[in-house]
Amino acid sequence: MPLVPLFLILACLRPAAALQEAKPDAPAAEAKKEGPDDSVPPRAFTSQHRGTFHGVEVAYTATVAETILANEQKEREAALWSIAYVQDGVADPSTRPVTFLWNGGPGSASLWLHMGAFGPKRVDVPSDARDDGGPPYGLLDNPGTFLDVSDIVFVDPVGTGFSRTLGEAEAKDFCGVQQDARSIARFIRQWISQHKRWNSPKFIGGESYGTTRAAAVVRELEGRFDDVAINGILLISTILDFTIDSNATGNELGYVTMLPTMAATAHYHGKAGAGVPLSEFVERARVFALGEYAQALLKGESLPKAEREHVRTHLAELTGLTPDYLELANLRVRPDRFQKELLRERGLSVGRLDSRYTGRDLDAAGESPDDDPSFYGIDGAYATALNAYLRGPLGVELDEQYKVIGGLGAPWDWELDDPFYFNVAPYIGEAMRQNSGLRVLVASGYFDMATPFFGAEYSLDRSGVVPERLVFTYYEAGHMMYVNHPSLAKLQEDVRGFVVGTLKR
User: How do residues 188-243 score in pLDDT, each as one tens digit?
Assistant: First the structure.
């Protein structure tokens, strides 16, 4: 099993509590049974709203709905929940784009992209890498989302949010790269059939492991004779080739792809690159990483002493770490060690999801941080805001707990066609070669140590991807770049521009 560059944790390893029945909205008031009973209607909660997005006033219907996935014998296997925002009054829905979004984990619900970037409301968290503190948290209008140009559907995979297995279905039916992707593809097919949107322009996208899921889902959607053709894929904080995250002895790739992120982090904290613009300093790190540094690591113990000293000196200038420490680490610094070492003299460790954040560990002598300050710095605000929004303006009346980090109590199945090399980037390459209208946006934060931007560049600079239809964007923030207000504004403009630009081609 590959080492996961988690947005969160491998949550499917944790058992999920049994969900109670809900108090459904009409007409599903009798829905009290689960299992292979096709007569029980799915539940849905709808509400009408208006908002102004990019200067355009939009009347829209918000629908928090349960979609039942059934097998060929019509036996219910899962209830998959989504939150959809669909513009009202569109004469021909097939002219209106629709975008399906999810988060990562695996085992995370979709609240991060929903409440942080692309929902009509967003939670207000500090922009400058401070902790979110305690409630109440602000719930703000989100005029920068792209609801003016596309309907948006946020999807919670089975085991997250309110989504769960039904009947005789087992955890192993959904806990896996391919199993999970099939369930999301089934949901998309059902949604576009129910809403008569087969001919609508369609976009899919995710964050972190959600980008892995996006690659697997596009393969499920476009790899059959009854294709669901996709116009665009949004990859936010990308991880496609998992070999870049391995710290196994002898695998040098992870050190090479992480170096520019370490340089960006050192620059942010004033440990390197004084007087040099961030983008220029990062480019220096890219060049060094692919050139002298990669060559030095590949030479191993045969690296000449003079060359080793030269590389060590340059590495120290880029990372802000001392030459002595780099020598002790054999020129190879694991991300967790870097997080602890960079600001050790200040008694601080830096975040993994967003290395702008800092935290204080129990002591300063350890090898790795106790926890990730960039996760515990925002989790309370997002969970609170999503639940308040669901059970307030969206009118959801359910007894169930919305599982921010869920799971089905089974290990995640990482099996692909090639059992020795976990890389889903070729799925995107194949889809781009076989669909001449497909474009891909890759959004990366400079300070993301979970899914480093150079790793995304590496994985998509091969694998048969069509470079002319690939767009890279960068932000001076981390994994959830949208917690930084300037980066949020830029991300929203970039995504809207990508959608509009794709439709004009």
Answer: 999 999 999 999 999 999 999 999 999 999 999 998 778 899 999 999 999 999 98
Rounded CA separation 464/462 (Å): 6
SS3 for 467-491, per residue?
HHHEEEEEECCCCCHHHCHHHHHHH
Here the tokens at position 14 are 């944790």
CA distances for 361 relative to 334, 339, 347, angstroms: 18, 11, 8
DSSP lists the bridge partners of residue 473 as 443
Q: Using one digit for the tens of pLDDT, what is the confidence trace for 336-394?
A: 999 999 999 999 999 999 999 999 999 989 999 999 888 888 888 999 999 999 999 99
Residue-range domain boundaries for the chain: 11-243+378-504, 248-376
Pairing of strands 439-445, 202-208: unpaired
Structure tokens, 319: 């990372």
Asked whether 156 and 64 are in contact (CB, 8 A), the reply is no
pTM score, whole prediction: 0.91
CA distance 165 to 176: 14
Q: Answer whether 277's CB lies under 8 Å from 315's CB.
A: no
The answer as to CATH 1.10.3720.10 being correct for domain 11-243+378-504 is: no
Cβ atoms of 24 and 43 closer than 8 Å = yes
